[in-house]
Amino acid sequence: MTKKAFITGISGQDGYYLSKLLLDKNYEVHGTVRRSSSINTFRIDELISKHSESKMFNLYYSDLLDQSSLSNLINLIEPDEVYNLAAQSHVSVSFKNPSYTSQVSTIGPLALLEVIKNSKKDIKYYQASSSEMYGGKEKKPLSENSLFDPRSPYAAAKLFAHNLTKIYRDSYGMFAVNGILFNHESPLRGETFVTRKITRAVARIKLGLQGKLTLGNLDSFRDWGFAGDYVEAMWMMLQHDTPDDWVIATGETYSVRNFLEAAFKEVDLNYEDYVVTSEKYFRPNEVDYLLGDAKKAHTELGWTPKTSFNDLVSMMVESDLLISQREKILVDQNLIQPTWEYPI
Predict the structure, then answer these.
(1) Active site (annotated) includes residue 27
(2) 185 noted as active-site residue
(3) Is 154 a catalytic residue?
């Protein structure tokens, strides 16, 4: 019997990789996108086109702040699994827009958990938690038992949803899990996130489309993995015998400076010739060091990351070189003008 999955935030990076994984496993996939004045499904257009006739991939306009809409959709679709990936996920933006960030990451999960609790069908629930909840004050590996100390509105809201998921699991016997995912990247990462901002700039600088790159703190450390590997862990959590919480990470940490070195090395350039820093891009409350301990996921789920740090960087630079090559054609034809710095 074909399983059904319902995914919020399906048009994002993780939404694409998770949808592709589930479709390959013969799931019928349903997902929500926010209605806006511009079409924002570019990441999943390939899946829309490929499955347009089979009805295995289905999209609906909805919003995590619209509990009625979410309830109607879940009751209509009757999914076997619900993956809550939607959020305002940019940490720096959460300081500038704390109200919206907090509402999406708290009211949304609450609405989903309430609908699932009251459903006649047994539905498994995945909540996307974040390594940002730890705060990053101490330089040590972080596991499921480490203390949380959120240092941004985004992290505080994620911790609320994390705890709420545990409360519903313990109170109502629901199959509800938290995936505490450390930073995970890909060529589909949003261009305002530091990793993609770097690889986008590297490609444009190499082709003469950009002259410099401005960043904030180069000495913050993150445990970076590949999003395609991490969504497999999400699925594995919902196939486990019992619901629980799991850290998903590579167990290695690199600084932004390390990422710069690796990315510029891909095109035989020295990052120091092109990168400047500005206080504009520093957070009000920096998270300096994050390193994950995923032993529990290795042991209980059988999950391990497949993509190395260097392979991830190479993959992202290669993808952005292709994008920039198309951009350069337009510049050479005087259809657009090159910019000294990419406007992010």
Answers:
(1) no
(2) no
(3) yes
